[in-house]
Design brief:
globular; 12 strands; alpha/beta; 13 helices; three-stranded antiparallel beta sheet; seven-stranded mixed beta sheet; binds pyridoxal-5'-phosphate; Aspartate Aminotransferase, domain 2; about 375 residues; Aspartate Aminotransferase, domain 1
Length: about 375
């Protein structure tokens, strides 16, 4: 029985009536750009994310750019982020004009190590971008304490962590601004690109709205120079149709993770994802470690189980950052992980039979 890595078609089939109705409504109302569907989704997502303001935009990468611009990152500034993330997090720091400074992850959780942050701070440091990687919150108490001590701002990259909580508090509510992606495969995904920045600060929300919409709030009034990064009505309507299901989908992912944990953690050489106390993991990805990762992946793939490596090269070692001349010893955990991590099939609709198949194949290996 083949097991896909994710199954967006299956998700669509379970809510087909709602999605089709949403798309038809946008076409009927001619509400392709801006309009009531976008406004409604911004309101609904702000409520779900437990923040005052949601500013939608074209994707999660742009969201990071607007957040950095709102924090006034500029040439000469240094911004600290995790060595282990998707490239957007680091690339947008560079595009804001600032310099990206990488920190190693902690050995257990794949999230940025607060001890490494403290060691990386210089007089030029202006902010920190923790990433709630794979769906597990970073250590926000420690990070916020460092930020306060050194007067730094914090932007949370929540692209993989919709509805995740740290000590009961929603991710994205700790820092000045937080960013979300609604890329189709994310826990809340559009049928195309989509993203958002969220904040409790009305002035920041207004500034980021202008950045995303040609620099103005009203047509032909360009207060600043912005870009075109609007969420389109079709994606907004699809996201509004999916949002009411997100809590149940999250529980389904967490239940599936428990089944993997129980089935895999007695197997020699397999390290199942560790969840630190007081953190709710939403399992955008279920990522194990294995010393012979490539052979394990080949075995699973040959038997019809799709897997992924998120990500095969840690950010400091990508060609894009060759100019820094980073060495493996500077990021020992991220460097070790890049050769050992393997993401297993994980989606809300995954069946017990599919998971048993994966577990059995891992056991045989
Ligand atoms: C997906 C993702 C992004 C970028 O989002 P896009 O919508 O693909 O631009 C940024 N950061 C992380 C951690 C992500 O996983």
């Amino acid at each position: 029985m083949p097991v896909p890595f994710a199954d967006l078609q299956l998700q669509y089939q379970t809510i087909k009536v709602e999605i089709d109705r949403a798309i038809a409504g946008v076409i009927r109302d001619n509400a392709f750009i801006r309009g009531s569907y976008v406004d409604a989704f911004e309101r609904e997502f702000a409520e779900a994310a437990e923040v005052a303001h949601c500013v939608s935009c074209a994707n999660g990468t742009d969201a990071l750019y607007f957040a950095l611009k709102a924090m006034k990152a500029k040439p000469g500034d240094e911004v600290i982020t995790s060595a282990h993330s998707w490239i957007s997090t680091a690339a947008m720091i560079t595009h804001s004009g600032a310099t990206v400074v990488f920190c190693d992850t902690d050995a257990a959780t794949f999230t940025i190590d607060p001890v490494a942050i403290e060691a990386a701070i210089t007089p030029r440091t202006v902010g920190i971008i923790p990433v709630h990687l794979y769906g597990q919150p970073a250590d926000m108490d420690a990070i916020m304490a460092i930020a306060q001590k050194h007067e730094l701002w914090v932007i949370e990259d929540c692209a993989q962590a919709h509805l995740a909580r740290y000590k009961g508090r929603m991710v994205g509510t700790f820092g000045e601004v937080a960013t979300y992606s609604f890329y189709p495969g994310k826990n809340l995904g559009a049928m195309g690109d989509a993203g958002a920045v969220v904040t409790n600060d009305a002035a920041l929300a207004e500034h980021m709205t202008m950045l995303a919409r040609h620099g103005g709030l009203v047509k032909h009034q360009h207060n600043i120079e912005g870009v075109n990064s609007r969420l389109d009505g079709m994606q907004a309507a699809i996201l509004s149709a999916k949002l009411p299901h997100l809590a149940a989908w999250t529980v389904a992912r967490q239940d599936a993770a428990k089944i993997y944990d129980a089935g895999l953690n007695q197997i020699a050489d397999i390290v199942v994802p560790e969840v630190a106390s007081s953190r709710d993991h939403v399992y955008h990805l279920y990522t194990i470690r294995h010393p012979r990762r490539d052979a394990l992946a080949a075995h699973l793939n040959a038997n019809g189980v799709q897997t992924a490596i998120n990500y095969p090269t840690a950010l400091p070692f990508l060609p894009a950052y060759a100019r820094f001349g980073h060495r493996p010893e500077q990021f020992p955990n991220a460097h070790l992980d890049q050769g050992q991590i393997l993401s297993l099939p994980m989606f809300a609709e995954i069946t017990r039979e599919q998971q048993d198949e994966v577990i059995e194949l891992v056991r045989k290996f």
